[in-house]
Every structure is written in structure tokens, then in C-alpha cells.
Amino acid sequence: MEPGEPREARESGPGAETAAVPRWEEAKAFHDNLTPKKKPKSPKPQNAVTIAVSSRALFRMEEEQRIYTEQGVEEYVRYQLEHENEPFSPGPAFPFVKALEAVNRRLRELYPDSEDVFDIVLVTNNHAQVGVRLINSINHYDLFIERFCMTGGNSPICYLKAYHTNLYLSADSEKVREAIDEGIAAATIFSPSKDVVVSQSQLRVAFDGDAVLFSDESERIVKAHGLDRFFEHEKAHENKPLAQGPLKGFLEALGRLQKKFYSKGLRLECPIRTYLVTARSAASSGARALKTLRSWGLETDEALFLAGAPKGPLLEKIRPHIFFDDQMFHVTGAQEMGTVAAHVPYGVAQTPRRPAPTKQAPATQ
What is the predicted pLDDT for the residue at 119? Predict the structure, then answer.
């Protein structure tokens, strides 16, 4: 082939096809590096651990809620449309959701084909018009939330079972009570009074015992007969497991995912850590709590028996992404020390329920 021949002619001879292959592969690799990585496929709800989070739990929406309350739903929707390209600020459940996603990344590395991961669903009685701003906010923070349930002013609680919900978090206490009444693990989540840095690589979840993991059987005895009778009762029934409380199933789901790491020899490096933080005293009533967990085939990584001491200082050291308690006294104490705390409205410690309001449901929750 003569030097003066056209380039096209020179490349059309024998060997040109094999020469083109490396160039094509180089171009494809360059393109793949420019293209955003494909997001993982959403698992089937029945195979996953489903966490339903309301919009006001995931994001801060105080100004929007004020507009709804003072000016009505039409002005509220108009405001959201005008600001739909402005992402919401992170709310109290945001660090928890980020930690769930960190666990998912580790699970997918170990089990690429498994759907036994956390699946996060945004559940809100917001109007669909607000959906664009919520989507923009989720994309802004690079969250993997593909499932939305937007009910336009109606309660979303009836949909939670259809999503196979393992835990529902909301800023609306009435919606949380509805979910508890339906047998769904739920809690009202509160922002801490100060910012505390939490782990970016390990999900930490702290639970109270009675009326959270366990039933309120023991708390009823305390209220009716006092602490001395309570200690006698717990000693006498030490080997009788307590009945389950509203969040037992969620601890069970966390334990199932932990075992996936244990089976790979990663117990000490597990990205999920659980804590029992209880006002019980170890010597007088701790054995029954631990034996109850054992009878369920469950455990917590750490068990802290405080014998009535405040929980806030211990939680400040643990720095959980979320702490569940049935008593607002402990929730408030945790908040003051910088812990994201969630109230579980279950059991004898709750105030009498107020009659359901007759006005239209709030636009956000």
C-alpha cells in the first residue's frame, strides 16, 4: 500500500478490524467513566426491610408547614411550586437514612443478587404537586429513594401494610398512633437540640426495653404497685419471657441483616450495631430482659442498665442515629444531649388519647 493512499483505504485492509477493537474499547471505557454509575435495582418489598419515612421526618419543612397553617393549602402548593428547585434542608431522619444506605452498599458488595436490604419509602399526605421538589431534594443529596406514596391530604397509614413496612417514622404523632394501632412499628421522630457527629459507616440503633421491645406488662405493675412490687414480680418471673412490644419486629429485621455479615466472618466489622438502653437495674430486673431476647433468638450488641439514671449522657457517648423510647421524659433528655430521639406511643405511660380532629388533615407530615 502506497504512502499517498487515503487513510480510509489504508485501514480497510487485513488487520484493520483487530486494530479497531482496542480503539473501541478505549472509547467505551472513557464513556463509562463519564456516565453516572447505574443505581441498584429496587428490591421487591416483600424481600426487603422496608423503612417508611414521612417528608417532615426526612426534611425540615417548618416554613412550609407555617404557610399551610396560616394561609391554607392553595398558598402552600403555590409556594412549593415556586421553590421546587430549592432542596429542603435535612430533617431528623436524614442521618438515619444515610446510614441505611451505607449498610446497603456493604450488603450489595457481599451479596450482589440479594434483595434482603433496606428499602426506603417516602410516605406523605403531601399533594402530588409537591413531588417535584421532594424528588429534586432526594437527587440533590444523592439518596436512593425510588418509592413514593403521596396521598393528597388523606392519611397514608392504610398503605403501610401494602408496602410491607417494618418501621414507620413521622413527625406527626397522630399518624404514628394510627400506625401503632394497626400493629405497625412506628415512632414520632424529633430533631436534637444540638448537632452531634454520627458514624458515616455504621448504623447505630438504640432501644428502650419496656413498651418498646417488650410489652408494657412491667410498667403496669410499677404504676399500680410501685417499684418494690415490680422487683418481686420480675424475680418471680425471671424465666418467663415478656410479651413482645411494638418494635420487636424491627430489632428482628436488624438482627437478620447482621447475621449476613456474621456469616462472612465480619461480626466485629458489622456495619449495624444495636443497643438496649433501659431504666431497669441489672441485678433486680435485668435478667428477665436479657432472657426474653434470648428466647426470641435475638440479642443487642450492648445492654446498658441504668437503674433509673438519665439516659441522655450515655446516648451522647453512643451517638446512635436513632433512639426509641416510650416516655417523652427520656426522649426530651436524649434530644438535649444531641441524640435524634423517637417516641413510641405505646403502653400505660402514654397520656389519654385526644379525640380525632375534625378539620382537614395537614398538608405535610
Answer: 97
* Full domain range(s) for residue 82: 45-188
Instruction: State how far the alpha carbon of 232 is from the alpha carbons of 44, 57, 210, 287, in Å.
Output: 47, 41, 17, 13
Active site residue 210: no
Please compute, for residue 26, the number of CA atoms within 13 A of its CA located in the half-sphere on the CB side. 5
Rounded distance between C-alpha atoms, residue 195 and residue 192, angstroms:
7
* Residue 305 CB-half CA count within 13 A: 12
The phi-psi region of residue 325 (left if phi > 0; otherwise alpha if psi is between -120 and 50; otherwise beta) is beta
Has residue 17 been placed in a domain? no
Mean pLDDT of 4-33: 52
pLDDT confidence of residue 28? 54
Residue 359 has pLDDT above 80, yes or no: no
Give the pLDDT score at 71: 92
Longest dimension (CA), the chain: 106
Q: Are residues 149 and 226 in the same domain?
A: no
* Close Cβ partners of 31 (under 8 Å, ≥ 6 residues apart): none
User: CA-to-CA distance for 241 and 252, rounded, in angstroms?
Assistant: 16
CATH number for the domain spanning 81: value is 3.40.50.1000
Question: DSSP letters along 13-47, please?
Answer: STTHHHHHHHHHHHHHHHHHHHSPPPPPPPPPGGG
| Active-site residue, from 208, 210, 216, 326 | 208
Q: Are residues 170 and 285 in the same domain?
A: no
The total domain count for the chain is: 2
Q: Which residues contact 309 (CB under 8 A, 6 or more apart)?
A: 279
| Banded pLDDT at 111 (limits 50, 70, 90) | very high
Sign of CA dihedral 251, 91, 195, 176: negative
What ranges in 50-183 are assigned the alpha helix state H?
55-58, 62-71, 73-82, 94-110, 131-140, 173-181
Same domain, 167 and 210: no
